[in-house]
Amino acid sequence: MRSASAILSVGTLLLSGCTSSFDKAQTTTLTVFAAASLAEVYGALGKEFEAANPGVDLQFEFAGSQTLVEQLVNGADADLLATADAITMDRAVDGGVVSGRPIPFAENILTIAVEPGNPLDISELVSLTNPDVAVVVCAKGVPCGNATETATEAAGVILRPVSEEQKVTDVLGKVSSGQADAGLVYRTDIATANGAVEAVDFPEANRAVNSYFINTVTGTPRSRDAKRFIEFMSTADAQEILSDAGFQPAEKS
Known about the structure:
This protein has helices at 4-26, 39-52, 65-73, 86-94, 143-155, 168-176, 187-192, 223-232, 236-244; strands at 28-35, 56-63, 80-83, 98-108, 110-114, 135-138, 163-165, 182-186, 198-200, 210-217. It has 253 residues and is an alpha/beta fold. It folds into 2 domains: 28-108 and 211-249, 3-Layer(aba) Sandwich (D-Maltodextrin-Binding Protein, domain 2); 109-207, Osmoprotection protein (prox), domain 2 (D-Maltodextrin-Binding Protein, domain 2). Helix 2 links the parallel strand 1 (28-35) and strand 2 (56-63). The longest helix has 23 residues, at 4-26. 40% of the residues are buried. InterPro entries: ModA (IPR005950), ModA/WtpA (IPR050682). This is Putative molybdate ABC transport system, solute-binding protein.
């Protein structure tokens, strides 16, 4: 005959196994397509959200906003889309790949990334027209590229970049690696570069502020949890994390 302790031990193991299976069954994973410039801060935001929402895990996919919209149009699977400007989110709305009202949650401003110490003495946008300065920018149609176009038009300058990138992190990478002398990036990108570049602010950047928007992807079966993440982005805790990363609060609509 088995002892009572042996029976209890087996029962405990069975209960433990059932609990583990139950926990796994209750876990929901949200896939978030997010602009490349959000990669650093979304790591911190994700940890905060998951801690406050047990059973919901976040999986992030970062790329240029326009690339993410194209992927969704072509059938990619995601639950949320966060873009770096209103224009790209509008394309997602027009394409039917997101539903509901896009919610603004942050703003970002351009700056000029240069080598530490600014050896070429770059001081404003017109400095980038010097043929001896190798400049890299985001391509037109990319949120940071649209902002660059607005800022240069406001300054009355025409840039002749050595390359045009599909996401702002690639612009930053070319400057930090020495492949370019200067590049137009967001202020938040400077903070993530760990001293590899420094910023040169210019007044026309205030004419090209990019607003970040988030929305649920059409047809997601996890819309309830997706909306919880959207609501979280407007909380004081989330806004503090965004502010610490250099983002500005979104204008209230």
